[in-house]
Known about the structure:
The chain is α/β, with parallel strands linked by helices.
Amino acid sequence: xxxxxVVYYAKNNHCRQIAHEIATxxxxxxxxxxxxxxxxxxxxxxxxxxxxYFEKTISIEYEMNPEDYTVVIIVSPVWVGKVPPPVRSYLVxxxxxxxxxxxxxxxxxxxxxxxxxxxxxxxxxxxxxxxxQEQDIDQEIFQKYLEDFADxxxxxxxxxxxxx
Length: 164
């Protein structure tokens, strides 16, 4: 086991951009969760809201095994205050394989504590978390908070490296 895996799900560029930025800071690998475009159409958008609200899982595809990494970081949007089905599906399938993990969530509104709790329910041993609004991504304060998050992950990696 070594290194950082950044796993993201994105329907727009925000989560993709965050994933690339944190992976760059931590010299990590990136893996995207694919939902086979099941939410692409207008009707798909309505189904996405429904599936999120009722905490459904769906068929997904991804490439890398999270078990092969020291730390896994999940980067996810927020849908109706909940975990999107593709991310939920990934976590349900892989949470037991992850030794250390954290998450970054992004929404178009301020992320509520209740939303963070939904993520923590799926990731109960989260070592680091960070939430942001999509419009803050290009702001200086976002970069500071992202660097703070990266520092927390670096500490975990250093502890793991010295113990091996």
